[in-house]
Amino acid sequence: MGDRRALYVALLHHPVLKKDREVITTSLTPIDLHDISRTCLTYGVKEYGVINPLPTMQYLARRVTEFWHAGFGKEYNPTRWDAFRIVGVYGILDEFREKIEKENGQPPVLVATTARKWEKTIGFGELRQWLTQPGPPILLLFGTGWGFTEEFLRSCDWVLPPITGTGEYNHLSVRAAVAIILDRLVGNRNET
Known about the structure:
By secondary structure, the protein is α/β, with parallel strands linked by helices. It has a single domain, classed as Alpha/beta knot (3-Layer(aba) Sandwich), CATH 3.40.1280.10. It is built from eight helices and eight strands, in the order βββαβαααβαβαβαβα. The longest helix has 15 residues, at 55-69. The relative contact order is 0.21.
C-alpha cells in the first residue's frame, strides 16, 4: 500500500431518517455485518465500524462477531472469521473517530454517502486520487433507513454524489452501495 491513506468504513444506525423524515435509530441487520465486512476486507479497508447507540443492538453485533471469532464458527468457515476480524462495534461515531485518530496520528476526513444530491460533494475520481496519496485517513460513512439527516451531512467534510444507474429507481441496499463505492474508489482498474 505504501503511502496510501488508510481507509475506514462506518455503518451508522443513528442519526438517520424514517420515510416520513423523522429522526430515528435503526436496528442492526446481521446480513450487513456479514456482507459489508467481506466487501471491506476484499478492498483493503482497515476497519468496518458498526455504529449503534442501542445496547441491545451492540450486544447483537458483538454476539454475531464473536461466533465467527472462536469455536464452531471459526472452524466451520475460516474465511468468514477473516472478514469479521476487521469489524468494530461502537455506540457513537466519535468513539470510532477517536480510535482512528489514535492509530493514524491525525483525525479522519469524514466522507458521507447519500442517495440525494448534496452541495458539498467530492467526485469518485477525485477521492480515488486522494486515496493514493499520503494524508489523513478517510472514513466513509454509510447510513441506514432513509439516509442521514441534513444536519449530519453538513457536519461531514465531504459527501459523495449519489450512485446512479440507467433507470429511475434509486434505492440500493446499503450492502450494494458499499460494494459499488469501494470498487469505484479502490477497485483494480487494470482488469481486462
